[in-house]
Amino acid sequence: MEEESELLKKRREKIDSLKADGIDLYPNDARVGDTTASVSERFGPMTAEELEKITERFTLAGRLMAVRDFGKGAFISIQDRKGRLQAFLRKNQLGEKTFSLFKRLDVGDIIWVAGRVFKTRTGELTIDVEENGLRLLSKSLRPLPEKWHGLTDVEIRYRQRHLDLIVNPEVRKVFQQRSRIISLIRRFMEERDFLEVETPMMQPRAGGAVARPFKTFHNALGMNLFLRIAPELYLKRLITGGLERVFEINRSFRNEGISTFHNPEFTMMEFYQAYATYEDLMTMTEELFVHIVRKLFDSTKFSYQGKEIDLSPPWRRLTVRDAVVEIGGVETAVLDDAGRMADHARKLGVEVKQSDPPGKVLMAIFDETVEQNLIQPTFVTHYPVDVSPLSRRNAEERTLADRFELYICGKEIANAFSELNDPVDQRGRFEMQLREREAGDLEAHEMDEDYIGALECGMPPTAGEGIGIDRIVMLLTDSASIRDVILFPLLRTRDDWGHLAARCPHDND
To answer: Does 132 share its domain with 201?
Structure first.
């Protein structure tokens, strides 16, 4: 802390000195014509002799990341949104005034440079900064993390993401990849005639998923509102309205715990297609994921946390019951007896209530014994109606739903089903959920009369799916935690910010 205070003191003194000399520390008239990548890609392959014939002048701006000062000359590294490039400064070329400005710059400052390109004796592409070809665009008061150790403290990285992005190039690549993945998903959907829509994030009742919501209050209307846990019930109203194919890449909120795979605020895509079944969506899901990985890796294979994942279709398909028997090692006789199944769940350490329906107990056993073993892409199908309040019943087995969940690397990535469009059956499901709420389940669904009213207008046979965008990005960037793929994950507040900042190592100026 004492060392940081001294660094900040030196920087403030430098700022006062620059101001006294009439130097604008934050000008806004610089024009930038090039990026580090555009220059590198165009001229990097050329030889030093070929570059001597290039008379073109280039202008770049970015953060000063490193300085090698030789007295009357210096090599510097400039970083912009596309990468880094070296520049060479010579006193006899820059001029006395500009070179004097350079001597007063600090690593972390935002600068502008202009000049021609050449290659050093070691073959590094470099901007030869011309006369008056250096400007200060923004003075950095706080020093960057120390260059040899970088920013490695995980908590500081999440809290001060701006520093994380500056000093850790691999972090920038993760979020660039995230943007590309979302773009690929959006184009895939649009090419299949899906319409992108937006639905309310504040809703009068929480619906569309089994989850505990965040609650707020609207002062002007004098009413409680909930941050959405899913956009499902609104999207299905649009299907009823005749839009037939809709999708939304949305932010949703669930008042649940935080883990490597859970953040209370998260991104998912939900889409609905009229005149389709959950089986149609299994095929479409395979096509979507294969499309993404081929665009990213030119392959159907990728590595996640040391495991090679192969997305070559067709993917494995298992019913919940078969998965519990084959992978969970539970005898079929146990699953056929509700009492024995509940006892088995308790032996596994799973909390089971007397009032829990058999389907809920079965899923508790599945979560404990099967989920973590589903490494390669697997569609798990035929979920109990007990845990599927919005899903269509299976025509042959009425206690099961026409539903699947996709698992990769032991985690749920997507959830889909043929939609329940019978308003009478839907009302009965809501009433069943209400009974569970009365029994203490705060995640159970509420009654939604408006949604039932929409179903009573007639919703066509429809299938819908939700896909976790953050989890896809985790898989395809080999990120161990969901916090690594969310720019600003939720963290506890820190009152003692100075204590936190003191743990961040800095450069010696």
So the answer is: no
CB atoms within 10 A of CB 476: 22
Q: Does some domain include residue 376?
A: yes
Strands (E), 275-418: 301-304, 307-310, 316-319, 378-384, 400-408, 411-418
- Identify the H or E element spanning 466: strand 462-468
In this structure, are 126 and 215 located in the same domain? no
pTM above 0.85, yes or no: yes
Which amino acid belongs to residue 410? Answer: G
413 backbone dihedrals φ, ψ, rounded to 5°: -110, -30
Residue 244 sits in a domain whose CATH number is 3.30.930.10
Q: Which residue type does 440 have? A: G
Examine the domain organization and report whether 86 and 189 are in the same domain.
no
User: If you search the block for the tokens 């008061």, which residue do you land on?
Assistant: 141
Query: Do the beta carbons of residue 141 and residue 18 sit within 8 Å?
Result: no
Whole-angstrom distance, CA of residue 471 vs CA of residue 476: 9
Exposure b/e, 196-211, CB count within 10 A at least 16 = b:
eeebeeebebbbbbbb
Q: Are 393 and 385 in contact (CB under 8 A)?
A: yes
Q: Report yes or no on 266 lying in a domain.
A: yes
Domain that includes residue 78, residue range: 2-144
Same domain, yes or no: 375 and 466? yes
Strand order of the sheet with strand 223-227? 202-203, 223-227, 215-218
State how far the Cα of 264 lies from the Cα of 255, in Å rounded to an integer.
6
Provide block-wise average pLDDT over 10 residues at a time, the chain (509 residues): 75 93 95 97 96 96 96 96 97 94 96 97 97 96 70 80 92 97 98 98 87 93 95 96 97 91 95 98 98 98 97 97 97 95 95 90 97 98 93 95 98 96 92 81 78 95 98 98 95 61 42
Quote the number of domains for the chain: 2
- Considering the domain architecture, whether residues 12 and 76 belong to the same structural domain is answered as yes
Compute the radius of gyration of the chain from its Cα atoms. Answer: 29
35 neighbors 82 (Cβ within 8 angstroms): yes
